[in-house]
Amino acid sequence: MEFSLLNERGIEVFNTCKAFLEEAGAWKEIDVFLLEMYAFNVQEYEKLARDINREGSVIRYRNRAGFTNDIVNPKVTAYQQLCSLSTKLANSYGLTPLARKRLNLKATGQKKKGFNLRPDLDDE
């Protein structure tokens, strides 16, 4: 399968989600586009989070009159929008605990903690 907009992280997210959905019996071929959109959003908001951590959430600039002004980093707004859209997509796919319960999805081979896109945050 070819992914036009996904980088290595996006492909990893896509494959992880696809494996979870296949195991849960909820995978359909028509879901590919929306799942690719979800993976793209995850890769982009992770990139924006790194940029915001590096640049800060407030940007200082000097205007023509010589005054220094503080404005909200525009990447913060983009980050919030991507998080909101990703959450909606994750809920529609059963990728959040509440959505899994609502959709009655159970993956048999997953750990008891459930689906996890961020194994680096695992407390094991």
- The assembly state of the depicted protein chains is single chain
Order of helices and strands: HHEEHH
Radius of gyration: 18 Å
Largest sheet, order of strands side by side? 1-2
Number of strands: 2
Average pLDDT reading: 79
Structural class: mainly alpha
Share in helix: 40-55%
Q: How large a portion of the residues is in β-strands, by DSSP E?
A: 5-15%
Largest sheet properties: 2 strands, antiparallel
Low-confidence stretches: 108-114
* Tally of DSSP helical segments: 4
Care to describe what's here?
With 124 residues, the protein is mainly alpha-helical. Helix content is 55%, strand content 8%. The protein has four helices and two strands. The protein has helices at 8-24, 32-55, 74-93, 97-103, and strands at 58-62, 68-72. Strands 1-2 form a two-stranded antiparallel sheet. Helix 2 (32-55) packs antiparallel against helix 3. The chain starts with 7 loop residues before the first helix and ends in a 21-residue tail after the last helix. The model is unreliable at 108-114 (pLDDT under 50).
What's the helix and strand layout?
Elements: H1 8-24, H2 32-55, E1 58-62, E2 68-72, H3 74-93, H4 97-103
Antiparallel strand pairs: 1-2
Helix pairs in contact: 1-2, 2-3
